[in-house]
Specification:
- The protein is 67% helix and 0% strand.
- It is globular, with a radius of gyration of 18 Å.
- The C terminus is likely disordered.
């Protein structure tokens, strides 16, 4: 097995565990952990996007090897580490919402006032531009929340769908990196998960799938 195959395997294993954890945690309304996992899935996505931005195949392979071997990603020809900020900013230029969601998720990984969400609304504590970016994404891809000034509680029902959107984008970019398809059984499982997700959200038909899923499941 090549290091690229191992890299993709470890990302998919992480994503599978995230999906199962989200279902359990959201059902028990352990919201801070749901958002922390969402941020971790986003971490996988921005890393794969960063890899795809590198034209130098030798350097790209160097970073893949580093991930597989558990060493830090470093700037080409230097010892300085590649920062999360650099990767997030690149993804932001493609997605338009990554930075705000990533930053919001970080506040639930590191101890912060956001963990007091049962008593203080963390969403309303965000700067206006960050709130606007998150709401724009939510309304465009998930149809809500419709309230003009939504609360944190208004966002909670949408979190599993947000995760699925990030996971679908991750799989699309990962497919671009791998250059090979999943096995037939893996593709069937993926299609079935997407269909179940769509049914839960009241969406029907392949036209409702994000572009990433069309590319994977064709």
């Amino acid at each position: 097995m090549t290091s690229l195959e191992t890299f993709c395997r470890q990302i998919r294993a992480r994503s599978t565990e995230h999906r199962e954890s989200i279902q359990v945690l959201h059902g028990r309304r352990l919201v801070s952990q749901v958002i922390a996992i969402l941020r971790q899935e986003l971490d996988s996505m921005v890393r794969v996007i960063f890899l795809l931005s590198i034209a130098d195949q030798t350097y790209r392979q160097h970073l893949i090897d580093a991930s597989v071997n558990g060493t830090k990603w470093t700037v080409k020809g230097k010892s300085a580490s590649i920062t999360d900020r650099e990767m997030v900013e690149l993804s932001q230029s493609l997605q338009g919402w990554t930075q705000s969601v990533y930053k919001f998720g970080c506040a639930f990984i590191h101890l912060s006032s956001f963990h007091d969400y049962e008593h203080r609304d963390p969403f309303r504590a965000l700067p206006k531009d960050e709130k606007a970016a998150i709401l724009k994404h939510m309304r465009a891809y998930h149809g809500g929340p419709a309230d003009v000034d939504p609360t944190f509680d208004d966002l909670v029902p949408y979190l599993p769908a947000v995760f699925e959107k990030v996971a679908a984008n991750l799989e699309f970019y990962l497919f671009a990196e791998v250059g090979s398809r999943r096995s037939a059984s893996e593709e069937r499982d993926l299609r079935n998960r997407r269909r179940r997700s769509l049914r839960r959200r009241g969406l029907l038909g392949s036209a409702c799938l994000p572009p990433a899923v069309h590319d994977i499941c064709r």
